[in-house]
């Protein structure tokens, strides 16, 4: 074993054992080289390797800090198995690093934290977001970016405000993000559904809606759809952008999991927009603390002034401390490193879900082929009602999310669940899917017994 490997393994052991606590600072490069009686270059190489493994991160002019700690859900010996929740696993949120960022934000932005700012957000943060989005093929200047209190706020404002096309109805995929359906219902907005399956959208049907109905905007989640877990093809995304221009329909692209994308060639619809009709929404809540409530909307020039008016009437401005923390995390590279760690962690869990369903579930069960993200849809056999089986599972502390909540009242819902891997480790996924199988068999056995008893009574 080489010298740098010895240094790396020793530091790794200290991190894993807790000798260097989460958020704790590593000894300086000089101190480590003196301790190990080696060159500084050897220590730097060892530290670089630990950074690549997402165990530590660097803070310019400060040093290196521990970033990864074991997941609370992984530490838990038993109890609740939650396939329903959509909030990030508390065990892999870098609380100590976020606290460091918040403390640093108070130091650097103290003068801005106690005054009303620009409703569109800190100019410096919007510049940082502009640079961050460029890696996703979103090229928009800070003047077109608005920082919002979570993607949900952006959706609420867009559903409320009038659009330049003078149209009023909102077209949504079926199934659809349940939060969007709820806010449209509360606002009394006319909503129209279009079917989306694992295979994608029927583009001919989409064009008929665009041509024949008064569609203000089409709300879509092209990447890692909620609840399907699948993504649209490049052909579909290009076609949507083209039809938006042809029929003067706006597109609201909810790209809430863009930072978890594993395919570098998977560009958003916004990258194919040449007419200024795509509103692009990005969430940071799945990477940082959801409670910080941070998102960004990239707006066409025709909507910027009106959106600003609606935004300022809503909250005057997004929380300054949250904005400052995000700017520091983007600028230091911590956000990007943590996103890479989460991509890897969630990728392993999604693979575990696919394998567990393949092992235990057949005879009418079918899991969507999600290649990433946090959701997959499980279709149930027609003889097993999604709500009934979900209720039986709750008795065993296994929780799932029936997709009936993801459909408009006028649309027949699928007999399926949305399964989330965001709060379940590999062992819990294995155990949970095995319990699904057992519970389904128990229900069928009970039905057979009841049916036999009734037949016997009838015969007597």
UniProtKB/TrEMBL annotation:
Gene3D superfamilies: Type I PLP-dependent aspartate aminotransferase-like (Major domain) (3.40.640.10), Winged helix-like DNA-binding domain superfamily/Winged helix DNA-binding domain (1.10.10.10). Residues 1-12 have a biased composition (Basic and acidic residues). One of its GO terms (molecular function) is pyridoxal phosphate binding. This is PLP-dependent aminotransferase family protein. The keyword DNA-binding applies. Residues 1-26 are annotated as: Disordered. It holds the Pfam family GntR. Keywords: Aminotransferase, DNA-binding, Pyridoxal phosphate, Transcription, Transcription regulation, Transferase.
